[in-house]
Amino acid sequence: MNDLNIFFIVSLCFLSGCSQAIEQNKINAYFDNSSNLKYQLPRSGVENILFIDTRFDLNPALFSCYNYIMNRVEVYNAETTDFLYHIQFEEFGPNAIRPSKYHLFQNYLVIIDDLKIFAIVNNQGEILDKFNGREIKINREPNSFLYRLQASPTFGMSKQIDYERNKLFAHISRWDVSILSDEFYTENKNTILEIDLQSLEYSPLKIPYPPEILKYKPIINENLTRGYPLITFSRQKIIYNYPFNNRIYIYDLINQKNSSIEAKSAYTEQEVPEVSKSMDKRQISEWDVNQLRFNQVIYDPFRNLYLRTHSYFNKTLKKRIYFLMIFDEKFNTLEELRLPDECHTNYYPAPNGIMFHFRHPTDENNIHFKKLVIE
Fold this sequence. Notes:
single chain, mainly beta, Neuraminidase, six-stranded antiparallel sheet, five-stranded antiparallel sheet, 4 helices, 27 strands, about 10% helix
């Protein structure tokens, strides 16, 4: 399927076919431009913000962002957009922290820092507890394999947390085996770690890499994070996927069983093609930039739905085209729609809709969100 055909099908859908699909599936999704939110950044611009996080389930709901220039997390009221406070981290010494991922609770933060230190930090920036994520012994025995905690390239750790049991699910990988070898994927039987956020005790889940990941090794070898599972927790299940294809994997925490399902797009290919053996490293990196990309599955607890964005590079339009798929609890597709060009692929379920982070071309001092309404 070439770019012109894909673009024609998508355009035709928006002109005529989408209304029939919405009527059949009893769901209507649209952007409400009258409900945009804007957070004014104190003494910093958008270019200083590395990542953001939201807690629409709290009262008051909180929005936060990490300012990497100031090395602090800035916290806002998510509904009024008022600035509340900031959490400053130490730059040097034994308590120095530079987050590569974090998640905001009401009275503390959970952080994975650049050195793979897993830490609990209070609202004054003080470390309450921590462990070394670079040397994790699963069985706590002298000869057990060593694992390393990895910060998956997801939309924030909030999607990886079981709030009722206070557990976090994070990616780990063995580091006694070369990531360039097939054995790294075939022998690694534990790819996700369950961490108790109160005791910091942890235990592995028997979730291996899927066999098909070996097809994408040339890409992973040039960008290691492309081989990390994208993890979400919901309803006693671990939902995870990879950027290479449409397949969604489900691990049932109660039965301890794995399953998977194909979640096919109506408008794009379903997987990244295999890399040509004639390509060198530079060609692989350039080729990968323009390939199909599936993002993390997000659970929407307010409507009991699952969401996933994906994109492909349209050579005719010379830009990426982004889509959002909406699934029911059994991963039946309810709707698939093309996203506006200005929308980022990071978004956050809220009680009255899905809040999409979007780029404002003339405003570099505020972070903007627009609301997708699902009826």
